[in-house]
Amino acid sequence: MTHFAKLGLAATLMMGTATAALAEAHAMTLEGGMETNMVLLPKFLGILVFDQANEGAQEAHAELGNPGELLFVGPTPENSVAGQIEIMTTAATQGQGAVMLSNNAGDQIAPSAEAAQAAGVQVVTWDSPIPSGAGESVFVAQVDFGSIGVVMADMAHSILGGSGQMAVLSATPDAANQNAWIAAMEEALAGDAKYADIELVDVVYGDDQAEVSYNRALALVDSHPDLGLIMSPTTVGIQAAAKAMQDEGLCDQVKVSGLGLPSEMVSYTMNGCAPEFALWDFRDLGYLTYYTAYGLATGQLTGDMGETFTAGRMGAYTIEEDPGRPGSKRILMGPFTVYTADNVEAAAQ
Amino acid sequence: MTAPVSAPPPSAGPVLALRHISKSFGMTRALSDMSLSLFPGEVHAVVGENGAGKSTMIKIMTGVHQPSSGTLEVDGVALRLSGTKDARQAGIAAIYQEPMVFPDLDVAENIFISATGLGLVQNRAALRSRARSLIDRIGMTLDVDRIAAGLTLAEQQAVEIARALSQDVRVLIMDEPTASLSDHEATQLRQIARTLSGQGVAVVYISHRLEEIFDVADRVTVIRDGQHISTRPVAEVTPDGMIGEMVGREVGNYFTKAPSHTRPEVMLSVQNLGCADAFEGISLDLHAGEVLCMAGLVGARRTDVALSLFGIQPATSGQVAWLGQPFHATSPAQAIEAGIAYVSEDRRKLGLALPMAIRANITLATLNAILSRLGLIDRAAEQGIAESFRKRLNIRTPDVETSVGMLSGGNQQKVMLAKWLEMRPRLLIFDEPTRGIDVGAKAEVHDLIRTFVKEGGAALVISSDLPEVLALGDRILVMREGRQMGILDHDDATQETVMRLATGATSLKGAA
Amino acid sequence: MLGRLSPQTLRILALLVVLALVLAFFASQVPNYFNARLFNRISSSVAIMALIATAQTLVILTRNIDLSIGSVVGFTAFATGNLVAGSPDIHPLVLVVYAMLVGAGFGLINGVIVAYARVPSIIVTLATMAIFRSALVEYSDAKSITSSQLPQWLVQFPNTSLFEVGGVQFRAAFVTAVIVVLIVHVALNRLRPARRLYAVGSNPEAAEMAGINLRLTVLSAFVMAGALAGLAGFMFLARFGNITVVAGLGFELKSVAAAVVGGVNIFGGSGTVLGALIGAILVDLIDTSLVRWALVSEFWREAVLGALILTAVAVDAILMRRLIRMRIAREKERLASMPQKEAAE
Known about the structure:
The complex is a heterotrimer.
Chain A: H1 11-23, E1 28-29, E2 38-41, H2 48-64, E3 70-72, H3 80-94, E4 98-101, H4 110-118, E5 122-126, E6 138-141, H5 145-160, E7 164-170, H6 176-191, E8 198-205, H7 210-223, E9 227-232, H8 235-247, E10 255-258, H9 262-270, E11 277-279, H10 282-297, E12 308-310, E13 316-318, E14 320-321, E15 329-332, E16 337-339, H11 344-348
Parallel strand pairs in A: 1-12, 2-3, 2-4, 4-5, 5-6, 6-15, 7-8, 7-9, 9-10
Antiparallel strand pairs in A: 11-16, 12-13, 14-15
Helix pairs in contact in A: 2-10, 3-4, 5-6, 7-8
Chain B: E1 16-25, E2 28-38, E3 43-47, H1 54-61, E4 69-74, E5 77-79, H2 84-89, E6 92-95, H3 107-111, H4 124-138, H5 153-166, E7 171-175, H6 183-198, E8 202-206, H7 210-216, E9 219-224, E10 227-233, H8 239-247, E11 266-275, E12 279-287, E13 291-295, H9 302-309, E14 317-322, E15 325-326, H10 332-338, E16 340-343, H11 347-351, H12 358-362, H13 379-392, H14 409-421, E17 427-431, H15 439-454, E18 458-462, H16 466-472, E19 475-480, E20 483-489, H17 495-503, H18 508-511
Parallel strand pairs in B: 3-8, 3-9, 6-7, 7-8, 13-18, 13-19, 16-17, 17-18
Antiparallel strand pairs in B: 1-2, 1-4, 4-5, 9-10, 11-12, 11-14, 14-15, 19-20
Chain C: H1 7-29, H2 36-61, H3 69-86, H4 92-116, H5 121-140, H6 152-156, E1 161-165, E2 168-171, H7 172-190, H8 192-202, H9 204-209, H10 214-240, H11 251-261, H12 273-292, H13 298-337
Antiparallel strand pairs in C: 1-2
């Protein structure tokens, strides 16, 4: 997982790096060993990427020598929204120092998050924010949401050779992060003349379930005979779509791309079904989120805009305004990794 | 009272014997110190009022209940039956008043559902032919491939009997087997009981039709209040003596016709009423104060006429005038609104919510009348209504909170009646009001009907019990296979004239 | 001719008519609707749904319901995948038996609680649905199975085309599922013990009186349903390869829908697994076709699916009533032509 190439792709992305470099000069170093109990709350349990985020958080937990507890708790999949709200509420009454949330409950979780804040709990979101920003201390963004749109548009451009039909296979219709990425991609497609011949014909939802995603992918092929690409910004969807195309012998005709895990996608990238896909490192995301939440919970960080700190091995980061959600704060992790046949095998090890 | 000991038992010992059996349910003592011996080859009638303990006794014999004390012996060996399966293995089977069929299975499957030794794989052809021969033994015509859901009560009964016959029975308990059968079928059934006893089977025969008992039984046992009263050869028994022992008191004028209360005004006028696939050409005038009985054999479609008047199965031809106005009910709600009540034949299915309290059942249809100002049920008023009916109808229960399912058949019938009377109807349609209830309760129900018409109501009574029809009806309408065969005045009606019309031996014109 | 057919056969006929109507409707709405692909799509996904609908039917026949079936499919898919990932040389048959045993184990838990603790099945299985799913989360340790961990024979099995008729492929998974459904169908019709399922659901009181062991019958229905759900889990693993903790989510309601659309009485006692198979095909056909129907947006799809299922059930019920009426008319004619037996009425 360490030696793959990191490609700075989009202008936004480079801007992010530039900010980080600028900030490094007066970055604050967090003091370890202070005690605070923290909860890492994923969308739901049982998905590999969330488990990786937990590994990163555990690494930071050990590194900072926090004598408190780090709990990895989450709802079961069929109970995600209600479960997240319940865990948030419980965390407030238990007096946890911080809750690190990958939000799957939209704005429904805001009241309980606000209650948690009122009880002195820091609410740090990661992966997927609270859309309104209410009840959220800061959002640790994996990459700039705008840049995800550009990356997906670029992969489509490269796979389709500049022209052709593409369709999107997303997770659920109300997943905040996927919807933002799709919107960003549409914006990117419309904003540059080089994408003029790429047509986005359909958006369907596979509910992040293998069998639904698989069937939706095949239905897309049936509905759009000239389809050249299925873009799936979810690790479950991209894998199911690639398997569906491979099973039905459609890989020559319809390619698959999007956001995927190297270990799950390696065979499809090697056999040409999914020649390019992208992802960020969820371990790093968990690591950075932990540093942020620890700083806030121990009072070393105030959470004000412009504040800069050093997150261990990952370097310096700054709290800034979230361009997608004016008034809300974010920390931008970056960068992105684009996987092709050249680097995927190494990453899958 | 001493129990006279019976005469005939042959040298062989009893095949089944109850020895000093008692059974209590909580505080209620259903049987106390009950002893009874059954010998191979006898038809042994057991009579008693409802609630006398007959059902409990049968359930002990069939292993459904276990006695609180006393023993049950098969072939002289004490046996503990812990379920119906044990009983069946011991050769004891029972058929009940309410047929126990599987509505979704066909006739042949129903008959052999619990049969053993037929192998794992079902051989349809063999099953059908065996089923057919059993049905033939009962003297019925019945398609063995038919789904039981569409069968009439009589046909379901036949299926049940065939099922019992398919098992190797040594003791066959027939609990009110003829209650739902026509006279002709009842006669056939009694012949079957005799045939079986001729083959050495001990038959326990329970019936409220006293004339049957004299026809079929070798010995008669009377029980009352859970206790054994007497066992005698049938020759030593008289109807009056038997009834006296059953009720422990003199029974009123059950078989005597009470004076008519008929008034001149017509309440219900029916002209040429018909309903597709069911009946046609029904014409009658029903006066205030009149009891009109509808007689006929099973399949005469009398119930369909009642269902049409009540709006469940709206008529497709003809006219009805109710209190002088044209009337065409298309739903029960309409009929109830107009003051027509229908007391159904099938208490379980259409009439009562068995798990609910007596109180709630009685006020079920009239809840609006007892709502308090806040729209809540006025429990005190509800209680009062239920309590008054309990007294008026003599419903035997500790209190009105008891669930209806706990009551005996006769008392259930009274609760159902109370439910409808509470609506203060002008016309009461009764479907088999006394089917399967005992002599004492019968007389009570008859009195209630008479009181009802005396106060200005009209009653339409469907009954298959000829003595009842003759005792109750001011006039008697006879139907046969969906057609009206004639209306007899009470004074012209005898068992013979009614039966001739009902069997189609003659129509009214031909008889004149 | 209709007069001789049993109500069961009539039901199947009515369903086939509805199926044809649905096909005709979508063919008129969706360009290039009919092609070999349509059959391949439906048959592949029905392979799993048919097994689950069959399992659900067994339980519904006894007047019960199994809402945990989706969780059982998910768990067995994962457990089976885990086993074969650890020991890739395991004999295929052993793997199938393992899947069915794991499923039967869950069925046993449901069955014991329903039959012996006398808790209504809707409550028991609502609870076990969540419990089994959480057990999977715990057991999986948040890992997922991916197709790269599975042996080639397993991944290739579902899509292996056994024979082909004019571009229409009959694939191994579909053929296997149809064979299983037919076996269960014949067993229900021809095996005497199977009649007990119907008897228990039809009239439990009478069944008890007839000496049928109610509890054992209900228990075995749940165990068999569990085993079939386990088999479905195996097929799920082979088809999708990627098993996460959400595998099989929502199958419980789909299976109930398929069974009910297929004419299985939700109150027990009547229905056939053949009907449930056609019900599964119908539900899946509507589901798949809706995605291709441009008129319906993503957000209305579930609602339209529900409405179409309701319509299908209603049309089926009306057709069924018509057919039965025709049959009764024939019956009457037949009886009328027979010598009268006066006394029988």
